[in-house]
Amino acid sequence: xxxxxxxxxxxxxxxxxxxxxxxxxxxxxxxxxxxxxxxxxxxxxxxxxxxxxxxxxxxxxxxxxxxxxxxxxxxxxxxxxxxxxxxxxxxxxx
Length: 94
Hints:
Strand 3 (50-56) and strand 4 form a beta hairpin. This protein has one domain (4-93). It has three helices and five strands, in the order E-H-H-E-E-E-E-H. It has helices at 8-18, 22-31, 84-93; strands spanning 4-5, 37-38, 50-56, 62-70, 73-80. A five-stranded mixed β-sheet has the order 1-5-4-3-2. The chain is α+β, with helices and mostly antiparallel strands.
């Protein structure tokens, strides 16, 4: 994705902490099926708002993708395997 912006710090976190590759993140954007949700938690509020969704990679790995949209640019905040609470919230509202 040409409009995907990922800082070096986020790249390092994805690789070391979450074991997520950038191509998996891109696959999730292409495979997204459902609505975008807004992270309304006080500690995570941003301007513009943080958006998130859960989608599958091409190999069937579920990832939660969180990002900020600025114009046409998608600024990735994080991507990781969602916990059960996040999966439940997305099933209900996504």
